[in-house]
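Most newcomers find our protein records easier to grasp once they have seen one. A record pairs a protein's sequence with a compact description of its fold. An example says more than a description, so a record of this kind follows:
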Amino acid sequence: MFHQNARRFQTNSPLRRGLKEGDTINVGEYTLHVLETPGHAPDSLCYYSKDPKEFNGQEIDGLIFTGDLIFSKGIGRSDFGGGNSDHLFSSIKNKIMYNPEITDNFLIFSGHSYYGDVTSVGEERKLSPYREYFL
C-alpha cells in the first residue's frame, strides 16, 4: 500500500495498491481509514480505526498508525528529500489533532519510537515539546 502519487512504488503487480485520503482498508474485523499526511515525505499516509475499544486492558476510542509523522514526545524529520516542516505541522494539526473523528483517547502507533512507548493523542496534546506548532 502506498500513496497514489508515490510513483517509485508503482508496478504492475496486482499486490500493490495506491491509496488516497478517504480510502478504507479492511483488516480482519477492523476498518482502517486513510489520511494523506505529507511532511516527513510528500506521500506520507496515516491509518486510523475506531473499531478497537480496548488495548492491554485500557479502554480506548481507537488507534492511529502515524509512521514517521508523530512519535512519543516527538515528531518526524522533514529535512529529507521532499520533506516539508510546514506540511508536517499542518498534517499533525489538521489531520489528527483537529480531526473530529480522532479523540484524546486514540492510541498512536508510530513507525518507531525513541522511548519505546505507545502514546495517545491526548498525551501528545499535553506533553509534546512541539505542541505549540500544531495546537
